[in-house]
Specification:
Layout lengths: L1 E5 L7 H14 L2 E5 L2 H6 L2 E4 L5 H10 L3 H11 L4 E4 L1 H4 L4 E2 L5 E2 L6 E5 L9 E6 L1 E2 L14 E6 L1 E5 L5 E6 L3 E8 L2 E4 L7 H13 L3
Parallel strand pairs: 1-2, 1-3, 3-4, 4-14, 5-7
Antiparallel strand pairs: 5-6, 7-11, 8-10, 9-12, 12-13, 13-14
Length: 209
């Protein structure tokens, strides 16, 4: 099984690569960090990380010749399992509003909006308790009250509540995990979330949508 971590110059992939390699050993997974759309197109699973601002990440992804088209075909047309992490998850949305309205991939309907927590520090940074809203195979063994590590100022407000799999409380509900069909996305960083994050990665590598 080949797992492609898409490299489009939007953050350091080292910690994500290490976490996927660690959990991939037992799953027989070959973890490949790649900016080659042909490699991504042939992968059995695709992971899209992302750090920074939504417009910059979306532009950077579009500037890797053929990559957006390759993952669109793989995920939407051929049903390849996909995970988005942090801004990689936010880009699943229809539109992001950070700095300016920017079109997302549109794979899960909704908008990326500023976190509304006037009495709390933004960015939302550090550990927070997950609330599991809808059971999902990638969340197997992860329960309400488990901790995950977040660093973000914007959140994905989904159009369809059926796509909201988990949230946290930060001055109100803040989206933590979204998903539909063969697509899953986490606002938190599983590679920085210790046992819970490694469990999620392991579940993703074994997931058969």
């Amino acid at each position: 099984m080949r797992v492609a971590l898409v490299d489009y110059d939007s953050g350091n992939l080292h910690s994500a690569e290490k976490a996927f390699q660690l959990m991939g050993r037992d799953a027989g997974a070959n973890i490949v960090v790649t900016s080659d759309p042909d490699v991504a197109a042939r992968a059995d699973r695709i992971v899209l990380p992302g750090d920074g601002a939504f417009p910059a990440c979306r532009t950077a992804l579009g500037e890797v010749d053929g990559m957006a088209e390759a993952i669109q075909d793989a995920v939407i047309n051929r049903g390849i399992p996909f995970m988005g992490i942090c801004v990689g998850m936010q880009m699943l949305a229809t539109t992001g509003h950070e700095y300016r309205p920017t079109a997302g991939l549109g794979w899960i309907g909704g908008e990326v909006q500023a976190i509304a927590a006037p009495d709390l520090k933004v960015p939302h940074m550090g550990w927070n308790d997950l609330v599991v809203d809808i059971p999902h195979p990638v969340l197997d063994g992860i329960k309400t009250g488990d901790h995950a590590y977040f660093v973000h100022s914007w959140q994905f407000a989904v159009d369809d509540p059926a796509h909201l799999l988990a949230h946290v409380d930060y001055g109100g509900p803040v989206t933590a995990v979204v998903g539909r069909d063969n697509i899953i996305g986490t606002q938190f960083h599983p590679e920085k979330s210790q046992d819970i994050g490694l469990r999620l990665i392991s579940n993703f590598l074994r997931w058969k949508p």
